[in-house]
Amino acid sequence: QVQLVESGGGLVQAGGSLRLSCAASRSIFSFNVMGWYRQAPGKQRELVARIFSGGTTIYADSVKGRFTISRDSAKNTVYLQMNNLKPEETGDYYCNAEGGSPWRNYWGKGTLVTVSS
């Protein structure tokens, strides 16, 4: 019954910025961790960033210093601020949530990010 809805994807030139949003159907603090993954065409899905309920964050090495994951509990929303985007970062970006009792793993349907050269 949990729904995650991503938004904010689109077309951006290399070096530009986008902010992705993931709106959850319930409190984001009901999850142990939420994160963003991406999947480039023909490639496997990979972790981009995660934020734990206590506020700890993890980033893929390739995005450190450029991407920031954050949250707004009042809006049940997790964000991914992406700066200085690169063409190779084109792909579908998915919101993920894990946790609860019993444990669950939820996925949004994704939002497409296209970074042009």
Brief sketch in words of this structure:
The protein has 117 residues and is mostly beta strands. It is 0% helix and 54% strand.
What attributes characterize this protein structure?
single chain, 117 residues, mainly beta, 7-stranded mixed beta sheet, 4-stranded antiparallel beta sheet, 11 strands, 0% helix, 54% strand, globular
Largest sheet: 7 strands, mixed
Q: Which structural category fits the helices and strands?
A: mainly beta
Give the distance, in angstroms, between the N- and C-terminal Cα atoms.
Answer: 40 Å
Low-confidence stretches: none
Helix content: under 10%
Task: Report strand %.
Answer: over 45%
Individual helix count: 0
Shape: globular
Mean pLDDT across residues? 96
As a whole number of angstroms, the C-alpha radius of gyration is 13 Å
Q: What is the ordering of alpha helices and beta strands? A: EEEEEEEEEEE
- What's the β-strand tally? 11
